[in-house]
Amino acid sequence: MNIIGKRNLWFAVSAVLIALGIFGFSYNILVRGQAMNFGIDFTGGSITTLRFEQSANVTSRLAEVRKVLSSFHFKESVIQKEGDNDVSIRTEPLDAEIRTQMMAELEKTFGRVELLEADTIGPVIGAELRSQAFWALLIATIGILIYVSFRFEFKYAVAAVIALWHDALITVGLIALLYRSVDTAFIAAILTIMGYSINDTIVIFDRIRENIINQKKGKVSFSEIANTSVLQTMARSINTVLTVLVMNVCLLLFGGATLKDFALTLLIGFTLGGYSSIFIASPILVMLEGSLGKPTKKPS
Questions:
Q1: Domain 45-121, CATH 3.30.70.20 — does that match?
Q2: Strand 77-81 and strand 86-91: pairing?
Q3: What pTM value is reported for the model?
Q4: Of 9, 79, 94, 186, which has the maximum CB count within 10 A?
Q5: Which residue ranges of the chain lie beneath pLDDT 70?
């Protein structure tokens, strides 16, 4: 199986996925007015912490809390259980009158409700979070570039980083296409995906380096060595990604409403991470090596 020789096919698949993401961004901007469905963390909103007297009801009937909130037609709301009988509700900015009405409706279902805290996140804080998210991704990329350059060579680092951003960009594009909520947990998911993807890529790169050292008389091309290395590690890569995906699907199905977008992002990203480690990173490394069909010398 010639993985490297069919690199144009893999690049075409990636190009289609990137094009879908670009379409998602464009459609959202034209129809919805923004590229992605930015959550309260980025756009600003209200955080209301409530204490319910009936803790058992709160624990088992969060769906009813969401049902009550749906009557207020909030564009977005995130409900999280904070303790045995405390609940944090994040919504679009609320004035005092709407908050009072919301508490009154909740009391009809759950009994007495006590307001513990009411905070507002302004647009300025949201812009600061977006900036911090950008810097987090940039610093992570630079760190990976330095580490892989030290561990291997600079061209290996470039190939690895291109594969990482391939995963991140397609994941972001598909989330935009699906118009799922984007918040700080989404940034955490992207960083997790990058960490997972680089791990699998390094395993393949390590096998490439071993095979270069063990080649006979320098008569094997770099592309052949890379292809052999990918095939030798493919079973390990597939088994690893399938194991992770099984756990991720369980999180998606049973993790609750607050974790669904996070789990979906991980599901897309981990799948792409397994794909890019096999079909993207090594072909890009071969192209950077510039030695297709040429004998590769053993490292001194």
A1: no
A2: antiparallel
A3: 0.76
A4: 186
A5: 54-61, 75-76, 82-84, 122-127, 216-218, 256-257, 291-300
| CATH homologous superfamily for the domain 7-34+125-289 | Multidrug efflux transporter AcrB transmembrane domain (1.20.1640.10)
Q: Measured between alpha carbons, how far is 46 from 118 in angstroms, rounded to an integer?
A: 7
Indicate the pairing of strand 45-52 with strand 86-91: antiparallel
Average pLDDT, the chain: 81
Query: So where are the chain's domains?
Result: 7-34+125-289, 45-121
Euclidean distance between CA atoms 114 and 50, whole angstroms: 6
Would strands 77-81 and 181-182 be described as parallel, antiparallel, or unpaired? unpaired
Q: For residues 165 and 187, what is the distance between their CA atoms, to the nearest angstrom? A: 13
How confident is the model over 72-99, as pLDDT tens digits?
777 667 777 766 677 777 777 777 788 8
Encoded amino acid at 123, one letter: P
**Both tokens of residue 173?**
């594009």
